[in-house]
Amino acid sequence: MTAMLKKLGILIIPFTLVVFGCAPKRPVLYPNAHLKQVGKEVAEADIDECIQLAKDYGAGSKSGEKIATQTAEGAAVGGAAGAAVGAVTGNLGRGVAAGAAGGAAAAGTRQIFRSGDPDPLLKQFVEKCLRDKGYEPIGWQ
Description:
- The structure is a single chain.
- This protein is mainly alpha-helical.
- The chain contains five helices and two strands.
- The protein has one domain.
- The mean pLDDT is 80.
């Protein structure tokens, strides 16, 4: 069992680093007259305000919940596959544990890479909010 925990640790540590190392994308503003007049600091505060407003009105994505759900589903599928392999090889417990760990790691990692893009509705809301304030959003990064 200790060897299995070490193997899980090897999977969990990079997964955690990826989760906490991914900063959410933010709008990029064209340097029009309004942006030049208010400056970068005010523009960043306006971006934050528009993002919060979008979330307050239900345009925010539930990416954390989606990642957790997909990871749990991956663990379940992996556990079932591992159980089948374990039953054939005579080591059911180890097969289930390995399959669940592999399935969770694969599903979670896939969702994390997909979660870097903001929800399309949130993007649209924030861009309209910024245009209403006089900015010209040109993309996200």
